[in-house]
Amino acid sequence: MPDALPLLKGTLDVLVLKALCWQPMHGFEITTWLETRSNGALGIQDSALYQALHRMEERDLIAAEWGVTEKGQRACYYSVTRQGRKHLAAATAQWTRYADAVTGILASPSKAR
Question: 40 Cβ partners below 8 Å, 6+ apart?
């Protein structure tokens, strides 16, 4: 597998919110979900993930609750809140506009010299 792409600043929160829209997950599940959906192109560092989770919990974008994994281990499960879903919708629209604009510029033919 090629080297993982670095995450652009500000994208981790949106990606985590998207993952949590599927179901509540603990940290390892979130990382696995994101890496699987990106076909391994995105590598998520544990420290960055947990900083993002704590930041989003403070902003009431996600909620945390202790539970037990399928293997019987205690884990903190995160779920997206109503405010988090609103934030995800707005951030998704903004990201899509940005990506479309950049793609349009990069896809335009270069002027021949």
Answer: 1, 4
**3-state class (DSSP) for residue 6:** coil
Q: What is the DSSP letter of 112?
A: P
Q: Look up tokens 């884990």; give the residue.
A: 75
Q: What letter would DSSP give residue 5?
A: B
Q: DSSP characters for 17-61?
A: HHHHHHS-B-HHHHHHHHHHHTTT-B---HHHHHHHHHHHHHTTS
Report d(CA 87, CA 34) in Å as an integer: 19
* Confidence (pTM): 0.87
Phi, psi of 79, rounded to the nearest 5 degrees: -135, 150
pLDDT digits (tens, 9 = 90+) for 37-53: 999 898 889 999 999 99
Q: Measuring CA to CA, how many Å separate 107 from each of 13, 97, 103, 111?
A: 28, 15, 6, 12
